Amino acid sequence: VNFVESGGGLVQPGGSLRLCCTTSGFTFGVSYMSWVRQPQGKEPEWLSSMGPNGERTFYADVAKGRFTISRDNAKNTLYLDMNGLKPEDTALYHCKRGDQRTYFLYSDPWGQGTQVTVSP
After folding, report:
1. Confidence band, pLDDT 50/70/90 cuts, at residue 5
2. pLDDT digits over 46-98, tens only?
3. Which of 31, 46, 92, 94 is paired with 85 by a 20 to 30 Å CA distance?
């Protein structure tokens, strides 16, 4: 199992980014997928999950109205569109297999993540 996150960077407050996560080693098209972030020195924070066919989406309160999760099963790829970014969104962003209740139960290795830094 492998996750490769990309799309992060340095952005000003109010800016936007699109994160991508390409996956391999498991059947992406039948899996719930999530985005999780980890600010430096803090515990991971679940942000959003999506069902296998995109029919169900879930968001943490910090993500509602600003972040949109999506997926392309043909490409085994998960996306996170982020708008209205705030300094407190600064973190290392990861994708994970599973939903908000199960992502931490898989023994999948963490990807390298993609760093998002929101600063003037």
Report:
1. very high
2. 999 999 999 899 999 999 999 999 999 999 999 999 999 999 999 999 999 99
3. 31
- Residue 28 backbone dihedrals phi, psi, to 5 degrees: -60, -40
The answer to whether the beta carbons of residues 35 and 80 sit under 8 Å apart is yes
Torsion on CA atoms 11, 116, 19, 22, rounded to nearest 10: 150
- Could you give the CA distance from residue 89 to residue 117 in angstroms, rounded to a whole number? 7
Q: Are 83 and 66 in contact (CB under 8 A)?
A: yes
Q: Distance (Å, rounded) from C-alpha 114 to C-alpha 16?
A: 15
